[in-house]
Input
Amino acid sequence: MILVTDSERKIKLPFSRGILTRSITLAGVDVGIAYIIATEVQKDLESKRARTVTTEEIRELTYRKLLEHGLKDAARSYLFWRRLRRMKVPITVLLGGTTGVGKSTIGTELAFRLGIRSVIGTDTIREVMRRIIAPELLPALHTSSFLAWKAVGNSGERGIIDGFENQVQHVSVGVNAVLERAHKEGFNAILEGIHLVPGYIRLDSRDFMYVITVGSKKELEARFYERSRYSKRPADYYLEHIDEIMAIQDFIVRKAREKGIPVIRNMELEATVVTIMDDIMKRLMEELED
Output
């Protein structure tokens, strides 16, 4: 067994090929290639009959392996993310966007690559608030986001947005409380949900917010059918209200443009995740250099 120690050789943990693979994927390397590189690192250590190795030695060996595979940019990214972890810089990633655009899936993948344990959906925050606040007090809180217009009594597109905004205002109280806690405690977190609307969320310098979209109504329909295959959420229910859902997307995108929040069309999971991680790295590098 190979034991990994910190720079002061105080902490000893067994070498894990899986953990190293995840660390390499953080640099934007395909998980298959990352696994191969992690295996090569393990074999090199075993060939040297190493009993203990420092994290710095693993970092240098992994960096060389990335260069040998022609992954120069990934090697640079790998060193950056390792440096960031050593500095224990807390970050919070927020993923907004209307129903069905893939926020939860993106959040789960980002959590895996970034090593973040807390993934919080705004639907969970809303559900907690529903248990505390009676429907008579806040009726818009006790319905779907795209049906909240019924609670405020307005109809038409303006009514859809008024009802949605009303719900967002209430849920944002809970969202901002979670963010404040994360900032105070200094832990990493990913928040995702339709209620993350730019302008209603109080962002810190280490908060990275993105709005996820789909390109068309047809594209969203396909996502609802796909989602219904592995969840209890029937596609028909959402398809009946797809016009309201698209209207809410237009509103969220407009708010994002006003506040300078990146808008990302989610055509393919890997491309979306890489886009977000590249943006986070770029902004953090600029901040650390400053």
User: Anything to note?
Assistant: The chain has a mean pLDDT of 89. The longest strand covers residues 207-213.
